[in-house]
Design a protein that fits this description.
It contains two helices and no strands. 72% of the residues lie in helices and 0% in strands. The chain is mostly helical. The protein has one domain (3-64). The radius of gyration is 19 Å and the shape is elongated. Helix 1 runs antiparallel to helix 2 (51-64). The chain has helices at 3-36, 51-64.
């Protein structure tokens, strides 16, 4: 494989990884909105999550670094 082929392959991989990072960052925002924007602007917990479930969601948010 020639040097230009290696560079082209690496450039393609970098672009694909940048796309994935962008997708993950957008997904983080969506996940956070689903977990904490449960009832819209008043966060009224219309889905009825209990304290234990919300604690798990909080742990997930901490792991993802979105809190």
């Amino acid at each position: 494989m020639e040097g230009s082929e290696v560079i082209a392959r690496q450039a393609k991989q970098i672009m694909e990884l940048q796309d994935r990072i962008s997708w993950f960052k957008n997904s983080e925002k969506e996940v956070y909105g689903i977990i904490y924007g449960i009832g819209g602007p008043l966060n009224d917990n219309k889905l009825g999550f209990n304290k234990e479930q919300m604690a798990v969601f909080l742990q997930i948010a901490d792991i993802m670094g979105i809190r």
